[in-house]
Write a structure and sequence with these properties.
- Strands 1, 2, 3, 4 and 5 form a five-stranded antiparallel beta sheet that branches.
- This protein has a single domain, classed as Jelly Rolls (Sandwich).
- The chain has three helices and five strands; from the N terminus they run αββββαβα.
- The two termini are 19 Å apart.
- With 129 residues, it is of the alpha+beta class.
Length: 129
């Protein structure tokens, strides 16, 4: 999936899709790339266009715990909530399978949230479905 109009949560609103492309920044990543580290400031919400991300939490003893995967057409609930509350990341997001990601800046999420009733569920947070 490389187009937002293929994502069910967006395909009913061509205007929203246009705004996401207008405000978002598309980037490609190879497997193994880290797109967000724990304790980093959350400046954008990732929407996975293709590929797979894994979300990991590191325990105090250094063990990494896999929390969930983010697949094509989905986003990250931890980034959405942390970004909306201006918090730092509690997790690390790493590319499992080469990925194309659309990053929506937090200030634009706030702008679109009210206009389009943008919610975590609407942007494809798998845990919210």
């Amino acid at each position: 999936m490389n187009n937002l109009d293929e994502i069910a949560e967006f395909n009913s609103s061509p205007d929203l899709i246009e705004k996401l492309y207008q405000y978002g920044i598309q980037k490609n990543y190879d497997a193994g790339s880290v797109i967000l580290n724990e304790n980093a400031h959350i400046r954008s919400i990732p929407i996975v266009m293709s590929g797979i991300l894994r979300v990991i939490k590191t325990e105090d003893d250094g063990r990494e715990i896999l929390l969930y995967y983010i697949k094509s057409g989905e986003s990250c609930i931890m980034s959405f909530l942390g970004g909306m509350h201006h918090e730092t990341s509690k997790v690390k997001a790493e590319v499992e399978e080469a990925a194309e990601i659309l990053f929506l800046p937090i200030d634009k999420v706030s702008l679109l949230k009210n206009r389009y009733r943008l919610t975590a569920k609407r942007i494809g947070c798998d845990m919210c479905k």
